Structures are given as structure tokens and as C-alpha cells.
Amino acid sequence: MRKYIAEFLGTFMLVFFGTGSVVYSAATTPSPLTIALAFGLALTVGIYAFGHISGGHFNPAVSLAMAIQKRLSWVEFVGYVIAQLLGAIVASLAVFGGVSAYLKSPTVAQALSGQKITVTQFINLAGLGQTNFADGETISAFIFELVLTFLFVLVISIVTKLANVPAPIVIGLLLTVLMIVALPITGGAFNPARALAPVLFVKGSALGHVWVYLVADLLGGALAAFAANFFNKDVKETA
């Protein structure tokens, strides 16, 4: 149970701080670097805090890769995914709950020049930090998410087996870099739980596009597992 709670909390942190950085900067033109750093730093802190308990996956694609590599049982995999999905959904609910207070802040009041906007109007306009891509770009978005998730999970699978390597920092920095590249194209999910949770509370094309992230990210994680087995043949487990 401790492992599942750790995965819930770590995923909550990742989604809350990451998507929160998008939503709560909507009135002041969010910076891609700030958003990417929010996700990367949240992941780094989460791994340092909970990695010794659950491994610090916070991502069904990572958990799938670990199960394929036999570093996680399939029973645990199911529990991890449930915990991750719940953590992401609760995080999106928390971000949604904070919108009302955000709309009353001086920053928003100044940006709107005193005009009133409801929570529903704001969510319809700014969203909840959901990932999305332009209509007609399904194939390119699929390939983009697939390739970058593959690289992300492959690096995780390798560095978490290396001794004397600060894996949480490497993983967090990698997520930051990947997001800077992917933000204008797909939003940079690389994580089915992170992609699914926000779209459950918003309208528009994002809900219709979410299957791309679910399939591409899980497939990328699975392919990374087989590649990692090849690269990790002679690598000893870290203590």
C-alpha cells in the first residue's frame, strides 16, 4: 500500500505543479521555460521524496516499461496505474478548485482591466493545462509523442540502474528539455495519466485527441523497455 500511496502523491505533485504553472500564468502569457521547469522540478522532487518507496514512476508508460523489464510485477503494475490515474485526476481537480481564487488575484484583475470572468469562461478559454495539437496533425503528433516518450523512458530505464548517477536530476532535466521542444507541437505529455486527467474537465478537441497520447506514450514506453533490456545487459543494479 505504501508504494501505491507514494505513486499517488508523486503523480499528484507532477500534475498539480506542472499544469498549475500553465493555468495560473494564463493571464500573464506563460513562458515555455517556466512551464517546462515546473514539470521537471516537480518530477525531480517527487523522485527524491518517494523514489525509495515505489521507484518514483508517476507515469503509466514508465511503469509499463518496468513491468516488461521484470523490475515490477504485473499485479503491482495495475496498482501503480490506478494510483497514478487517481493522483493525476485529483491534481486536476485541485487546479480547477484554485481557479476561483486566481481570478480574484490582482494579477488577473490588472490583466482583465477590471472585467469579470467566471470560472467556466476561464476554463473554456485557458483550459486546465491539457495537452493538445492542431487538427489534421494526428499522425505527426502521434509520432512526436511516441519518439520522445521512447527516449524519455529509455533514459529512465538506463540511469536508474547506474551507480553514482543522480538519476532524479537527470530525469528531471530531461523532462524539462523534452517539454521545451514539444510544448508548441503536442504540449509534451509523455505520460498517459498527465494527458488524460485535465481533459476530463474541459471541453473542445483535447478530449477527442487524448487517445493519441494514451496509445503513443504507452507504446513508446513498451519499446523503450525492450531497448533498455539490450543496453542494460551487463549493467548491475544500483544498491
From TrEMBL:
It comes from the Bacteria. It is a multi-pass membrane protein. Keywords: Cell membrane, Membrane, Transmembrane, Transmembrane helix, Transport. GO terms for cellular component: plasma membrane. The chain crosses the membrane at residues 35-56, 77-103, 139-160, 167-190, 210-231. The keyword Cell membrane applies. One of its GO terms (molecular function) is water channel activity. It is found in: Cell membrane. This is Glycerol uptake facilitator. It comes from Leuconostoc citreum (strain KM20). The gene is glpF.
